[in-house]
């Protein structure tokens, strides 16, 4: 995942996974996505379904990122042990919250993640412990979501924090928190400020956009370096709707 994010010649493309079915992850991989974010914040996907989705992603060549609803309950530890290539943490408004996320994701002395090398992340104990620890500290990606004006104000310090690898600007929550639309000039300015802070810090910055070439072009023009193309449910729904609409145009002879 880190390699995909750091490639300046091609924006990394991802999508949200909200349907707890391994076949969905297979289809996402076959479509050519670079990464998929298994969404435990805005779906009913639980740890066991996430475990299966992570395994399917790893075997089909798409990087599995898990969006955790929070840092409590040991969930981050469990999905990392399950082999997640990264963690996305929503609503990171302060440097203190970012530090807590780093602590949950990284091994000591950088953090407080426990050692579980006999799980999938350690190839069931087959990987040398030094490599297991190195991978967890150096290759696992931590993405902090900036979703409020407070988060934007602190984005420079969050992006510069050791252990934070990327920012994702959540325009929907940011606009709602300001009581404005996503196209409002004030919201657009906040988004641009967050992007500028990330770019200055040399940290990849992404967004959640639409599944069209125009949407990707708009994201790149706005300074984003990676983008999310809709989500599994919406992609299926749009394809199904288009198929039915096309079929309805056919008339019997």
Polypeptide structure, described:
With 253 residues, the protein is α/β, with parallel strands linked by helices. The chain has one domain (2-248): TIM Barrel (Alpha-Beta Barrel). It is built from twelve helices and eight strands. The protein has an eight-stranded parallel barrel with strand order 1-2-3-4-5-6-7-8, surrounded by seven helices. It is globular, with a radius of gyration of 19 Å. It starts with a helix and ends in a 5-residue tail after the last helix. The mean pLDDT is 96.
CATH topology category name: TIM Barrel
Unreliable segments (pLDDT under 50, ≥5 consecutive)? none
How much strand content do the residues show?
Answer: 15-25%
What is the H/E string?
HEHEHEHEHHEHHEHHEHEH
Number of domains: 1
Radius of gyration over all CA atoms, rounded: 19 Å
For the record, the CATH architecture stands as Alpha-Beta Barrel
Helical residues, percent: 40-55%
Question: Which oligomeric form is depicted?
Answer: single chain
Report the CATH C-level class: Alpha Beta
Distance between the termini: 53 Å
Task: Write out the strand line-up for the largest beta sheet, numbering strands in chain order.
Answer: 1-2-3-4-5-6-7-8
Structural class by secondary-structure content: alpha/beta
Shape estimate: globular
Mean pLDDT: 96
Annotation, overall tally of beta strands: 8
CATH superfamily: Phosphoenolpyruvate-binding domains
The profile of the biggest β sheet is:
8 strands, parallel, barrel
**Count of individual helical segments:** 12
